[in-house]
Amino acid sequence: MFKACDVVFLCLPHGEAVNQIDRWAGLAETVIDLSADFRLKDGASYARWYGAPHPAPAWVDRFVYGLPELTRAQLRGARYASGVGCNATATNRALMPLVRAGLLDPNMPIVSDIKVGSSESGAVASDASHHPERSGAVRPYAPAGHRHTAEVEQMFAALGAAAPSAGIHLTVTSIEMVRGATAAVHVFAKSPLQDKTIWKAFRDCYRGEPFVRIVKAATGIFRLPEPKILAGSNWADVGFALSEGGTKVTLFCAIDNLVKGAAGSAVQCLNVMRGFDERAGLGFIGLHP
Amino acid sequence: MFKACDVVFLCLPHGEAVNQIDRWAGLAETVIDLSADFRLKDGASYARWYGAPHPAPAWVDRFVYGLPELTRAQLRGARYASGVGCNATATNRALMPLVRAGLLDPNMPIVSDIKVGSSESGAVASDASHHPERSGAVRPYAPAGHRHTAEVEQMFAALGAAAPSAGIHLTVTSIEMVRGATAAVHVFAKSPLQDKTIWKAFRDCYRGEPFVRIVKAATGIFRLPEPKILAGSNWADVGFALSEGGTKVTLFCAIDNLVKGAAGSAVQCLNVMRGFDERAGLGFIGLHP
Amino acid sequence: MFKACDVVFLCLPHGEAVNQIDRWAGLAETVIDLSADFRLKDGASYARWYGAPHPAPAWVDRFVYGLPELTRAQLRGARYASGVGCNATATNRALMPLVRAGLLDPNMPIVSDIKVGSSESGAVASDASHHPERSGAVRPYAPAGHRHTAEVEQMFAALGAAAPSAGIHLTVTSIEMVRGATAAVHVFAKSPLQDKTIWKAFRDCYRGEPFVRIVKAATGIFRLPEPKILAGSNWADVGFALSEGGTKVTLFCAIDNLVKGAAGSAVQCLNVMRGFDERAGLGFIGLHP
Amino acid sequence: MFKACDVVFLCLPHGEAVNQIDRWAGLAETVIDLSADFRLKDGASYARWYGAPHPAPAWVDRFVYGLPELTRAQLRGARYASGVGCNATATNRALMPLVRAGLLDPNMPIVSDIKVGSSESGAVASDASHHPERSGAVRPYAPAGHRHTAEVEQMFAALGAAAPSAGIHLTVTSIEMVRGATAAVHVFAKSPLQDKTIWKAFRDCYRGEPFVRIVKAATGIFRLPEPKILAGSNWADVGFALSEGGTKVTLFCAIDNLVKGAAGSAVQCLNVMRGFDERAGLGFIGLHP
Questions:
Q1: How far is it, in rounded angstroms, from Cα B239 to Cα C171?
Q2: What ipTM does this complex have?
Q3: Is D221–A171 a contact, with Cβ atoms under 8 angstroms apart?
Q4: Which among A105, C178, C260, D245 is placed 20 to 30 Å from C28, CA to CA?
Q5: What's the CA gap between B187 and B161, in Å, rounded?
Q6: Helix, strand, coil proportions of chain D in percent (round to 5)?
């Protein structure tokens, strides 16, 4: 019932895309898969986080990890791209400036404390998503060992940086929200930093990016990134706060997990892959209040 | 596995209590049933709203409708009491003062527009209760023909009053809230009223009631009843607003549907039935903010 | 500091626009005022609801009431248009089909029970809008006598229909929501209706309208209009439910009060006034979930 | 206008209690101050976090820091007690078991990521607390340098432990909630731990405590502490999650900031100070859902 077409977006449960990839690749020149099946380039990492060796490693090599801010060069002209984990991508966009700039202390841990909305848990109702129970929750649903950690480690590798010896630690907490994910990434610099050094790292990293904004204001209500005003938009807002002493930095990234963390990011990848205007189809700027 | 005891509260799905009533009445002297099985005294009304003749009409006669403000005299010493429909009871408590005082125009309709929280739909998850869908809803789930209408009609009969010829109309809308139900009951007086007349009707109706407060203030944030500050408490707050011209009155009643609209009301009934302090076990006064 | 331009939208407090109208009309050919200053055509009605005679009745005559579904013909080519009251417009869009079709009982009242978000109260913080107090509110902030009633009466007059002898009654309740207003308008037909008669009235009234949808489904979660999925969009969703017996009808209209109830409606008026595509600048279709 | 009495609770803005302490201490034998004025025993710490030397250091020495789980022995028979910072106390209750057990790596940082409701910001309305702005916020209002850090450092000192060389870092984020604060405290052990070791540390620390529960379940919805079910109660729920590898531990503590984080804790202190039943006046167990 499906005919050949230009582009296929696969939105299947984990483990399904890899089983069906030959079929869909036969129907469309461009395939973008939003599942986790083709995200991890390292077989050992896949096996560790997903519990078994990858069933089709040759296909993994054909897929580009679909984080345009990291892999835009490889996406250009590519036929296959994977999506990104929403929590990984919030963490990665917060971290990339300091990783690129080589400012982090390799002996200190990285802690990403992520607050997320109920749409992250998918469209299937459960006892935990039942409104009387889920409403008002502040629920640590993945306090340790979240699979998206692997995508953060992969980002380090892609930038030629070593992951910290004390580890990368994601904690995901469900809060009262439908759309939205925001990461507070707690990191430590190898030597005391000044605000202007971090500003420069952020500007260098995100100069020219069509969907990343640096949000850091000294006054007003919105001083740091917040997901509410991003609902429905493809923006990733990033920012940071420097502690007294200069070595502890809290990095922030807020997104709409369903857009920049999933569908919008996939469209942005398509635009890059096919040479379209990278912003095509992604013009909604969000609502306030 | 159940042994004889003093009191049984039945919290079973509609239609189950009536099937099991002999068993439970054999185990306990006092039975309070929170389902709809024994609420309606009139067989025709039951058949109309529940779709079939009542399977055990003799048992219906033994049960007292458990609305202490209406049936306290019958509850004293009774062995069997039914609970009340939460939407019916919010509507009835708003209406009773003017019905008792004979102030309503019998040719004008009564419209009860009820806003309710998600706990009214029970403990079983469904597509409609899935947090991403239910969150932020303003959903007319029972726009017309709600079964609790029968309990409002029965209240009129219990007070020896005729239900209005233009009907009693309940509309129930689910809003963003977990606990709480609030009825705005739109009624019309047979002749223009003054505030003081309505005040008197409310005071006459609820004088000495341990769980009803008249809330009507000219200033401040809480000028009329609101359910938020009643969460967990057995209070029913009632109030009213008179329109220019004096014939249109909006009556309000706010409750916690799980307490004054269900479990708390059942405990209050027990206290009346057995001659305990009517407030025993119901001391929580609510939280603010 | 303001130069001549093509269009001015005035978003001033009530009473300011009328004082400044000569200035702005001198700067722009097209003026659209979102305040209440030029909405009411009838001087007596203005005086009754706003407490004093209108200070510039000649200007009132130049303004077209900016409800495209009602006044599109007059808006075409007009230079001046007023906005609409958000609660009035939700009520009017629910009511217009049955008023146009002449189906309402002129002796029966109309009750519009409107649920609204916090953005209706404007951008200035107050004790009542303080989050700990406003959060979770179900607050009857205008239980009777809301000024927008005048705009509903004016709609009747504009359609050549008599307002009901028992009055039009608006009750506005603030609920947990930021954007959104939804009216449940309780009306009574002069004789028993069938669903298909009402369907026809709605279709006749809104055929070809670019921003009105009839929402009435027998299954699924969204059976009647709801404001959540309209946030940020210019849609007005309308629907109805017929009670057993056929004379009581509950009419629904949901909008985003800041868009279809204010700014979006003003843009739509501009498009009509100047002959643009009526949908220009109003393409956002809303978010789900 | 105030007469001599048994107990005074001072709930004054920061800096006011210290100015008025002679007056109140003259009126009542027991004074419990909920402000920050008498919390910090170390003058240098006070000066650092509050910007000036303490104006009445002799009074500081008379006050016991009012955290019963830490200072019960000193509270017994004491005349003066201070309250606790709500964010400090959530962090401290999460941390104390591992600090007491000497399990933390002194070279690794401690990061407390705290999610809080709007009642933490007090009763005065502001632009930031205006409902349309505050609703749905995920706002890092104190991303670094929160004053309550001093109370966490003081807890280390009180237990004879050294604060970590890499610092104690609090980040406070305002989320959609009215009452409640929950801390996720990210810590690192000096050597790999097992669950049972941490369980023992928690049990040893909180054995016999009347208001602390260890919440750590393998199944169900509530596997770790959550503040919603604690609203209005004096419970502090604590728990933990151990990462693969055994050195990273996430410690949790959830409280109602207005009760266990303020007023309830003060009442508990009073009970200890005067030898009353420690639970007197604090019997409310919370609501669910």
A1: 14
A2: 0.96
A3: no
A4: C260
A5: 15
A6: 35, 20, 45
Tell how far CA D255 is from the center of its chain.
Answer: 9
- The chain B residue lying nearest D118, using CA atoms, is B289
**CA distance linking residue C199 with residue C203, whole number of Å:** 6
A162: DSSP letter: P
Single out the residue of A281, A285, A280, A272 nearest to residue A66, CA to CA: A272
Mean pLDDT by 10 residues, chain B (289 residues): 94 94 97 97 95 96 98 98 97 98 98 98 94 98 94 98 97 98 98 98 98 97 97 98 96 98 98 98 94
Following DSSP, what letter does each residue of D156-225 receive, concatenated?
A: HHHTT-PPPTT-EEEEEEE-S-SS-EEEEEEEEBSS---HHHHHHHHHHHHTT-TTEEE---SSSS-SS-
Count CB neighbours of C41 within 10 A.
18
pLDDT of res. B124: 93
Spatial CB neighbours of B162, under 8 Å, sequence gap ≥ 6? B106, B156
Q: Tell me the residues of chain C between 171 and 200 that have a Cβ less than 8 Å away from chain A.
A: 178-179
DSSP conformation letters of A33-60: E-SSTTT---HHHHHHHHSS--S-HHHH
Active-site annotation holds for D86: yes
Which helix (H) or strand (E) segment is D74 a member of? Answer: helix D68-75
For D149, half-sphere exposure in the C-beta direction (CA atoms, 13 angstrom radius) is: 25
CB B66 within 8 A of CB B269: yes
Q: A118, A174 in Cβ contact below 8 A?
A: yes
What six digits make up the tokens of B22? 């002999």
Nearest Cα neighbor of A147 from A51, A13, A18, A32 is A51
Give C161 to chain B, closest Cα distance, Å. Answer: 21
* Nearest by CB: C248 against B169, B177, B247: B169
Kindly list the structural domains of chain D, giving each domain's residue range(s) and its CATH number in brackets, ordered by start: 5-84+261-274 (3.40.50.720), 86-257 (3.30.360.10)
Per-residue tokens: D244: 């693969």
